[in-house]
Design goal:
The protein is built from three helices and four strands. By secondary structure, it is α+β, with helices and mostly antiparallel strands. It has one domain. β3 and β4 form a beta hairpin.
């Protein structure tokens, strides 16, 4: 019984040591160039002045209402008048039509 428990313990350690960890910097997951994004807490007016008109504005969803402004390379999420997040689009998903 003790040999079996010891064998299970040794097997679990050997499996853990065989695991491979791959690390890929966030910038390399999407694009190889620098992309300027709106900062958190910018107003809609400030985003529009800095980045122009969005290609699409999605209707508000939820409570509090969250609105998405779609640009070619990124999407900006607003809660009321303030930026919550700006998310880079995947290079293969730059279409704004859905």
């Amino acid at each position: 019984m003790k040999k079996m428990i010891l064998g299970i313990i040794l097997l679990s350690f050997s499996l853990a040591l065989a695991a491979e960890h791959i690390s890929l910097p966030i910038g390399q997951q999407t694009r190889s160039y620098e992309l300027s994004l709106p900062d958190r807490s910018m107003t809609k007016k400030a985003v529009e002045e800095a980045f122009g008109d969005p290609s699409k504005i999605k209707d508000p969803v939820g409570e509090p209402p969250i609105t998405a402004w779609e640009y070619k390379d990124f999407v900006v999420y607003f809660e009321q008048n303030w930026v919550l997040h700006a998310v880079v689009r995947h290079p293969n998903n730059n279409s704004t039509s859905e």
